[in-house]
Design goal:
By secondary structure, the chain is α/β, with parallel strands linked by helices. Helix content is about 55%, strand content about 10%. Strand 4 and strand 5 form a beta hairpin. The chain starts with a strand and ends in a 6-residue tail after the last helix.
């Protein structure tokens, strides 16, 4: 079948006023009464603003596409009824970011989700980006040139609106395909558990970390004085970004701050000659940066944060066993399993259960611990019962092979 390049879509219904929103809600209730499936996506301006905003909310039923403009001044609270209604299935692709943004900005509650990206991973698709799925399954090639559009700009170009419409227009068809595949592979329960967890993601607000400069200082091996200079540049960047309402990286990239901290220039000329410092930054913020560098030279050097304690060797062993099992089971990237969290779950459960028992009971105790950790670890590993049993037995076999460790210390 030949791929259709940028097919012409039916004209979407644009919603910019309260009256248009009321009309949209009435139409949606009518359409969803016959087929309670609603595709959803959002567009935000994180590439262009200090505090990102949801700039568009797109909806598609099987009949109609809608584009809501929340920054036009309308109250989008009524939309929350659709998201909270468990009788309506909300279909997203890569929903987590959309949910975080809408929860943070509008305090919506979500139920009955279906995420086509998660479904693609569970069913073994190697390429699970929306564009790749549309090309492979729907035979539609999507124009990707608008991914970095400034969605907060008004008026939005027609091509940008068409791009936004496409993000939801084909989701019902993708959902139908993956629902059938999940049924064929007997993975529906796995997917349903993951979708339920997804709905609980929190709408966290990005908070500035005044100690965040250490994430640059330590891996770049800056000395204490260079770190003091970096701190002042880091604080200056945040202040400028906030005042200009742009993301911090639009003011100065991390590598430029590190280069300035290492070079510690004393003049604009020296700053221009520093490696990794674009002339545009020097021209716009040069004097402010020189002042920050001088403050860093005169300031008390910062005390490095305490290093994190070394990872418990027992957790390392469990992590190794879990990775080996995941590899042998053929799960890989297509199934969600966080080995690091899961290993800690097993160790903590084992130690709690074995607190007052003797060493001779290790084998049977570990078997119980493994089953309990696997059974209770759904937040870390959504696996059907057969895979959970397999994992528990694998961990048991792995521990039996580690006789040298068993002879030297009591692990659980």
């Amino acid at each position: 079948m030949t791929k259709e390049l940028h097919p012409i879509l039916p004209k979407p219904i644009l919603v910019r006023t309260s009256a248009q929103l009321r009309e949209m809600m009435a139409r949606l209730r009518s359409e969803l009464a016959h087929d309670p499936l609603l595709a959803v996506d959002t567009e935000a301006n994180s590439m262009y603003a200090y505090r990102e905003r949801v700039c568009l909310i797109q909806f598609s039923t099987r009949l109609t596409d809608y584009i809501v403009d929340p920054i036009s001044g309308i109250d989008v609270t009524p939309i929350g009824e659709l998201f909270a209604d468990p009788a309506i299935e909300k279909v997203f692709h890569a929903a987590e970011y959309d949910l975080i943004c809408m929860k943070r900005e509008f305090h919506f509650t979500f139920t009955n989700l279906f995420d086509t990206m998660i479904a693609a991973r569970i069913t073994g698709m190697k390429n699970y980006g929306l564009g790749a799925l549309l090309e492979t399954l729907i035979q539609v090639e999507v124009d990707k040139s608008h991914q970095r559009d400034d969605w907060g700009h008004r008026p939005l170009p027609k091509d940008s609106l068409i791009y936004a419409q496409r993000d939801t227009h084909y989701l019902p068809a993708l959902r139908d395909y993956f629902a059938e595949r999940l049924t064929e592979l007997n993975y529906w329960e796995d997917a349903r558990e993951t979708f339920t967890e997804l709905a609980e993601v929190t709408g966290a607000v990005r908070a500035f970390d005044p100690e965040g400069y250490w994430r640059l200082a330590i891996p770049n091996h800056l000395n204490r004085r260079q770190t003091a200079i970096l701190r002042e540049l880091y604080l200056l960047r945040e202040e400028i970004a906030k005042s200009r309402d742009v993301p911090p990286f639009k003011v100065m990239q991390d590598k430029s701050m590190v280069a300035l901290a290492q070079a510690a220039p004393e003049s604009l000329g020296e700053m221009e000659r520093a490696n990794g410092v674009p002339f545009s930054i020097t021209r716009r913020y040069g004097l402010e940066m020189l002042e920050a560098i001088e403050r860093g030279k005169a300031a008390r050097v910062p005390v490095p944060p305490r290093p994190e304690p070394p990872t418990d060797p027992v957790i390392v062993e469990c992590y190794t066993a879990l990775r080996e099992w995941r590899k042998n089971a053929g799960i890989g990237a297509r199934r969600r399993i966080r080995c690091d969290h899961f290993a800690r779950n097993i160790v903590d459960a084992g130690r709690a259960q074995a607190k007052n028992t003797g060493r001779n009971a290790f084998n049977s105790r570990f078997r119980r611990v493994a089953f309990r950790a696997v059974w209770e670890g759904n937040s870390c590993c959504n696996q059907p019962l057969s895979r959970k049993n397999d994992l528990a037995h694998h961990l048991m076999r792995f521990r039996k092979q580690k006789t040298d460790v068993l002879n030297t210390r009591l692990l659980f």
